[in-house]
Design a protein that fits this description.
Layout lengths: L1 E9 L2 E9 L12 H9 L25 E2 L18 E2 L4 H16 L2 E6 L8 E6 L4 E7 L1 H7 L1 H12 L6 E4 L5 H10 L5 H5 L4 H14 L2 H13 L4 H17 L5 H4 L11 H12 L4 H20 L3 H30 L5 H20 L4 H8 L2 H9 L2 H4 L2 H14 L6 H17 L1 H7 L5 H13 L3 H18 L7 H13 L4
Parallel strand pairs: 5-7, 6-8
Antiparallel strand pairs: 1-2, 1-5, 3-4, 6-7
Helix pairs in contact: 3-4, 5-7, 7-8, 7-9, 11-13, 12-14, 13-14, 13-16, 14-18, 15-19, 18-19, 18-21, 19-22, 21-23, 22-23
Length: 505
């Protein structure tokens, strides 16, 4: 470990604080943190406490030498040497007390400066004064040849000084937003292996360095920061957004950032139809229960995120995967029908086909694109006939699809035509009633309340005569089966009021 000197100059008094800092053979140093700056300045800002006036009834304290109060002297940015202030003796005079308060205010608001020397000590030929916020300043003792070689910003500034024939031994930079990183970036100009130094930092700090390097036109540092950002993992969405926004800003300025952007964007601009189809096929063809369950949830969540996006690319993606999903629906329906046609139907395969169809229907309902599925399901007359001839222990899972269709209509997720709604109830309501007891006890995802509400709302969308015929048929089943039949009493009450209490002419 080596040390560099940080000189505090406050109101004409020079203070020196030694801070242990790692220095490489190239002369690179690590900038002191703001805590070091603050501690170094705060410890020298404390003024002696003022004693209250002595009361006549009190015994005056022993005579002691009064404290010294420094008179504020402004710090010059071009010359860090100041004359020692003349001390003034405090007394109990009110006028003097007022003067002390004024002096205190001036001392607190006076500029505070930290002096840092870069490179080989004692050889600097240029002073750069950085003025930050809250009257804080840093004086850098640097070398012209280093700054002229590394920074286009300093090259322009020093050339401008020479054109105006002004002294180039000092340079002032006002309104430094991130003075700590500004100092560190100038220090990086003295380092030969920037990559090794940046590896010690995190993504957030490198982005700050990149911003200052861009301001200073320190191209070597910019390229090293981009190489770091291309290779390092980005943790979390927030960090990724910060990196991408910084990179896009640089791209607008003509700086090559393609390697980084390749991490988040493909050169292929067409919607990845084949990729989506492949993912869906992998999930549908899996027979491992846990893997299927988890990947179904993940894919459903990601597709919902695409639905919520408002960009034209996401809209195109939606159209692509909707077509893919309907193609998969037809394949699953064909497989399900083939199983029911067999004398020894495979109960497990039927369960997988039903599970796949229910998942695909969930995706379509999220996109409000399930109307065609309702039509497909309403027209499954052969499957409905075979369902009635198959033992309930094998067939009952099929009614999960019917239940989800009714829930979708009841929620407004699908809006099939009146004829399709009537056909669905005519063809699939009675099979659902026959399987209802099995569904309640054998299907974990079955939501009785949602299903009954969906069936009732679907019935009430039909003409009043159709409501009556369906609800009267349901009433006969409900009076026989009780809890083993859907409870449609709410729909029955609405139909009753429409018919007998307030009939419309």
């Amino acid at each position: 470990m080596a040390e560099i000197r940080l000189t505090r100059i406050e109101q004409g008094q020079t203070r020196i604080r030694n801070v242990p800092i790692a220095v490489t053979p190239e002369g690179f140093w690590c900038c002191p943190s703001p805590v070091v700056f603050q501690k170094s300045t705060k410890t020298h800002n404390k003024l002696p406490k003022q004693h209250p006036p002595v009361s006549k009834k009190q015994i005056p304290p022993p005579q002691r030498k009064p404290p010294l109060v420094p008179v504020p002297v402004p710090v010059s940015s071009s010359n860090d040497k100041t004359e020692d202030p003349t001390p003034s003796v405090t007394n109990n005079n009110p006028a003097q007390a007022s003067s002390d308060r004024t002096n205190r205010s001036k001392v607190e608001n006076a500029p505070r400066k930290v002096s840092i020397e870069l490179g080989e000590p004692g050889t600097s030929d240029l002073k750069v004064i950085l003025f930050g916020k809250q009257t804080f300043a840093v004086k850098l003792c640097v070398h012209k040849n280093v700054l002229l070689e590394k920074s286009g910003f300093f090259l322009d500034k020093l050339s401008e000084q020479q054109q105006h024939q002004t002294s180039s031994s000092s340079l002032e930079i006002d309104d430094c937003e991130d003075i700590e990183i500004y100092v560190e970036t100038v220090g990086l100009m003295y380092c030969k292996d920037l990559r090794q130094q940046l590896m010690k930092q995190n993504v957030s700090r490198v982005l700050r360095i990149l911003k200052v390097a861009e301001l200073l036109r320190f191209n070597t540092c910019i390229n090293s920061c981009l190489e770091y950002l291309e290779a390092v993992p980005w943790v979390g969405d927030e960090e990724e957004e910060r990196v991408v926004s910084s990179v896009l800003r640089l791209r607008e300025e003509g700086i090559g950032v393609t390697p980084i952007l390749k991490r988040i964007a493909s050169e292929n601009t067409d919607p990845p139809k084949d990729t989506i189809a492949h993912i869906i096929d992998l999930v549908l063809n899996s027979s491992e229960e846990r893997g299927r369950r988890e990947m179904k949830a993940i894919v459903l969540k990601l597709l919902r995120e695409n639905n919520n996006a408002s960009t034209s690319s996401s809209s195109g993606l939606s159209e692509v995967y909707i077509q893919t999903i309907y193609s998969s629906c037809k394949s699953c329906l064909s497989s399900l029908l083939n199983q029911f046609k067999q004398a020894d139907a495979d109960k497990k395969q039927i369960g997988l086909d039903v599970d796949n169809l229910t998942w695909l229907l969930e995706i379509l309902a999220d996109r409000q694109a399930a109307d065609e599925f309702a039509i497909m399901w309403a027209n499954q007359d052969e499957l409905a006939l075979l369902h009635d001839q198959t033992p309930v222990v094998t067939r009952n899972r099929v009614s999960c699809i019917t239940a989800r269709v009714f829930v979708g209509i009841g929620r407004g997720e699908m809006l099939p035509a009146k004829e399709i709604r009537h056909l669905l109830l005519e063809r699939w309501l009675q099979p659902l009633i026959d399987d209802y007891s099995w569904l309640q006890h054998g299907c974990r995802s079955f939501d009785r309340k949602a299903v009954e509400e969906g069936i009732g709302r679907t019935i009430l969308t039909l003409p009043l005569e159709d409501q009556q015929s369906i609800l009267l048929a349901w009433l006969g089943s409900f009076l026989k089966a009780g809890d083993n039949c859907p409870n449609l009493q709410k729909a029955f009450e609405v139909w009753w009021r429409r018919t007998f209490v307030k009939p419309y002419a």
